[in-house]
Amino acid sequence: MFDLIIRSANLPDGRKGIDIGITGGKISAIDRSIAAQAGEEIDAIGRLVSPPFVDPHFHMDATLSLGLPRMNVSGTLLEGIALWGELRPIVTKEELVDRALRYCDLAVTQGLLFIRSHVDTSDPKLVTVEAMIEVREKVAPYIDLQLVAFPQDGYYRAADGISSFNRALDMGVDIVGGIPHFERTMGDGTASVEALCRIAADRGLPVDMHCDETDDPLSRHIETLAAQTIRFGLQGRVAGSHLTSMHSMDNYYVSKLIPLMAEARINVIPNPLINIMLQGRHDTYPKRRGMTRVRELMDAGLNVSFGHDCVMDPWYSMGSGDMLEVGHMAIHVAQMAGIDDKKKIFDALTVNSAKTMGLEGYGLEVGCNADLVILQAQDTLEALRLKPNRLAVLRRGKVIARSAPRIGELLLAGRPARIDSSLDYAPRD
């Protein structure tokens, strides 16, 4: 007797018509046909059932603050930082909590149940940290929220930046962050990477740094981050986020850099939507688009996962909490349109991101937590193409969100009355 059986599911690995049995919040059986009863059954009717989406790079303290205190007119990263610097001293804890909770509501409907958020520690009042810790506690029943201590104004550059950063960790922030390219000099950036990796080693914490979010090919802090990772024995526990300078580096230097990153087992987190929006702003034409070397990094065996980064905040006026939108853009910008390429992109939104975040019990195997999403698509390729509705979102075997199928009504004589783009418009054999 199972608590729940999902019938006739298609799985991300290509298996079709599979039943998934759930007991006690865990996946207890996966088979072609489970001959058993359950307290509840869901017929997936050949739809894709996947582990939930995972966002390993986000800024929840800034989300949904678009237009406060004003709009980012230039659309640049630096104006976005300046705008956040204007909002941060006047924002209240209640406002931060309210916006973050509203975003989490949206995330759940999109099948996004795991988020790593960078939290600004540059203001000594640390209102942002207090707010996000409260949010982490409130959403714990349905979202796993990791928090990164993020010195937005620079670890060394910000007044009292070091003491504020350390206090944030003492308050219970999970992960050591950084932003070496925003320090006043290249030397200060290098020193900050070493200091922050030392803190992580001493405290037994992971590291996730904004690294080289610039068009400058001489911004090479990822090299320092990889070297310090090895020095302090942090292999596999360190993430380099953005890495956009790699799109401007010469190939000879990259041929040396990528093997060093692989040796350090760096987790790589590009943010396709934001990277292509904010980078290349000083270019006319040819115009760089900003995303790092995704294909080369994957081919070298590095764990690559994608982040949403921002939704309606000083840096990005768009966004929907939909990780498939992130993957859809990655396919275009990385020019990874092959079948195997798209499968890798889907993995970068799910299992790779789960590895980056060190999630336990994540996946679609017997013994894993019954955290699942049923999509209005037949397979992962179709999911990336259509960004379909999430028909059901499950947390520990309980449905916590539903969406109706997206069906078009056609009023044309002699043509079908109902159009389901996932069932009717996949290529036919």
TrEMBL record:
Keyword Metal-binding: yes
Entries under InterPro entries matching the protein: Amidohydro_3, Metal-dep_hydrolase_composite, Metal_Hydrolase, Metallo-hydrolase_Enzymes
Record-level GO BP terms: cytosine catabolic process
The entry's keywords: Hydrolase, Metal-binding
Recorded GO MF terms: cytosine deaminase activity; isoguanine deaminase activity; metal ion binding
Metal-binding keyword on record: yes
SUPFAM superfamilies assigned to the protein according to its UniProt record, in alphabetical order: Composite domain of metallo-dependent hydrolases, Metallo-dependent hydrolases
EC assignment: 3.5.4.1
Domain spans labelled Amidohydrolase: 40-399
NCBIfam families found in the cross-reference section: PRK07572.1
Protein name per Swiss-Prot or TrEMBL: Cytosine deaminase
